[in-house]
Amino acid sequence: MTFSFEANRPGLTLGIVGAGIMGRGIAQIAAEAGITVLLADARAAAVEEAQAFCADIINKKAAKGKISESEASAAIARIQATDAGPDKGYAAFAGCDVVIEAAAERLDIKHAVLRGVEAAVSDRCIIATNTSSLSVTSFAAAARIPARVAGFHFFNPVPLMKIVEVIGGVLTEAEVIESLVQLAQRLGHYPVRTTDTPGFLVNHAGRAFGTEALRIVQEGIASFADIDRVMVEAAGFRMGPFELFDLTGLDVSHTVIESIYRQYYEEPRYRPIQITAQRYAAGLFGRKTGRGFYEYLDGKAQKPAEAAVPQVDVAAVPVWVSDRHPQAGAAVRAALAIAGARLEQGAQPSAQALIIVTPFGEDATTAALADNLDAARTVAIDCLFDLERRRTLMKTPLTQPEFVQAAHALFAASGKPVTVIEDSPGFIAQRIIAAIVNIGAEIAQQKIASPADINKAVELGLGYPLGPLALGDKHGAARILAILEAMQSFYGDPRYRPSPWLKRRALLGISLMTAC
Ligand code: NAD
After folding, report:
1. Within 13 Å, how many C-alpha atoms sit on residue 208's CB side?
2. Which of 7, 250, 352, 492 fits a 20 to 30 Å CA distance from 166?
3. Can you give the residue ranges of the 3-hydroxyacyl-CoA dehydrogenase NAD binding domain (predicted)?
């Protein structure tokens, strides 16, 4: 039996069940790509609403001159309403080449749709589900012909998120995947082939950013706003983890965090933090409820002000910088020289000196003790990213306030913003970046997707400045490994155990993109 279609064939017909947010987005891009779309929904009015919604967007494109009037009206005419659905069956879908199910996220509902569709379509029609969190194999289990069933996971908003995961269930035929890959290309989307695993690729790769940030808050290291500032201004992310939680909505994010953790049988790398459960219970979902990690006034997040830069005569403070990490030490010295600091040159700090250490993965306490330095005068600075951006400082429990203030003033003297946090193995950025790289490496290790697709999918689907493996290569696999090992050793928590993919490539000194 052949389960395939010629994706570029004129007259290709796509059935969509569920004309909600996702169904209408898929309908719009398919119609614009010249594909005939048959729409069905359990609620008849939903189909008309979806048609009107798509027509409005397509007409606006024509008004802006992005497409011609005739192209617009032809695309609109290609989105056809049907009376198919749970009550009347799916006879209207008899001639479909492919059907995408985008109904509610419940396996019983999806199984009923699958059975209804399969009773109507030809044996060669491909059936795909847009599920975000259910197993494609479980979905396909209700099919008469599971070999023709796959996942085709779009992201919201479909026309703007130019990526779709093409997911093979355990029984899916390879030709089904190839046809869907070609269909994605016709729709102008980047197809990422993934295996049927919890969260597939993008939602799996997204586990580190939010949960590690929550872990930092839970441990009292830094505030939501401080973490967001560091991840945006120092690490170059478009949005901080808490801004992202507020945008997505905690009703969605908290559910995904718990679901992926459970589906991976409580894998510590994905362990949730109780903060989201609490805030979920309180209804603090984010922008949609007017309050999440931030409060929203007229749609704008109200961010707490930062601590003022202490007034310190920076030229009066002798500063000694550790050379344990020579490159980082040199960068810190250069930054301090610009700020007019009194730099000490000795092998050991003088009795009055402010002591600066530049640990990777260690906290300030461990870094001070490792070199027999006075913890009461020690301040650590994060050198994972260059010091031209926001700078993160951290103190030991013993660091005296006057030394913290002096360090703050010195590193802010050239006009750079400074964040001061409590002691933390890996500051903020190091631990979040290391966690992102580690989970990306584990996705590669489990052969969920190819290294190139892991990077591309994360850039397109999560909007990170770089995909996880490219991020690891940028900082060096050995450095990321060292950060993770230091965190694992400090906390004794298997959450931070390095993925074998990362460890081997770090030991061999090769790129994280190197496939087996
Ligand atoms: P939605 O609630 O906007 O739309 C679902 C539509 O399905 C509704 O119009 C509803 O009337 C219809 N429906 C419900 N039961 C039906 C049935 N038995 N037969 C036919 N139609 C039925 O939901 P959505 O956000 O479009 O999500 C649809 C699917 O896409 C879900 O599986 C969801 O997990 C997945 N998804 C959602 C997003 C997202 O960000 N919203 C992203 C990716 C995937």
Report:
1. 28
2. 250
3. 14-196
- Minimal CA–CA distance to 364: which of 475, 233, 221? 221
Structure tokens at 436: 């992102």
Q: Angle between the 207-218 and 250-263 helix axes, to the nearest 10 degrees?
A: 100
Distance 386 CA to ligand 1 centre (A): 44
The fold for domain 13-196 equals Rossmann fold (3.40.50)
Topology (CATH) of 202-300: N-(1-d-carboxylethyl)-l-norvaline Dehydrogenase; domain 2 (1.10.1040)
The structural domains of the chain, with segments of one domain joined by +, span 13-196, 202-300, 318-416, 429-508
DSSP-assigned letter for residue 464: -
d(CA 382, CA 430): 8
Helix (H) or strand (E) holding 174: helix 174-186
Which of 29, 41, 111, 244 most suits a substitution to test ligand 1, by most atoms within 8 Å of the C-beta?
41
Domain covering 429-508, topology: N-(1-d-carboxylethyl)-l-norvaline Dehydrogenase; domain 2 (1.10.1040)
> Out of 130, 179, 203, 424, which one is annotated catalytic?
203
Give pLDDT tens digits along the chain (516 positions). 688 899 999 999 999 999 999 999 999 999 999 999 999 999 999 999 999 999 999 999 999 999 999 999 999 999 999 999 999 999 999 999 999 999 999 999 999 999 999 999 999 999 999 999 999 999 999 999 999 999 999 999 999 999 999 999 999 999 999 999 999 999 999 999 999 999 999 999 999 999 999 999 999 999 999 999 999 999 999 999 999 999 999 999 999 999 999 999 999 999 999 999 999 999 999 999 999 999 999 999 999 999 999 999 999 999 999 999 999 999 999 999 999 999 999 999 999 999 999 999 999 999 999 999 999 999 999 999 999 999 999 999 999 999 999 999 999 999 999 999 999 999 999 999 999 999 999 999 999 999 999 999 999 999 999 999 999 999 999 999 999 999 999 999 999 999 999 999 999 999 999 998
Catalytic residue among 32, 101, 118, 165: 165
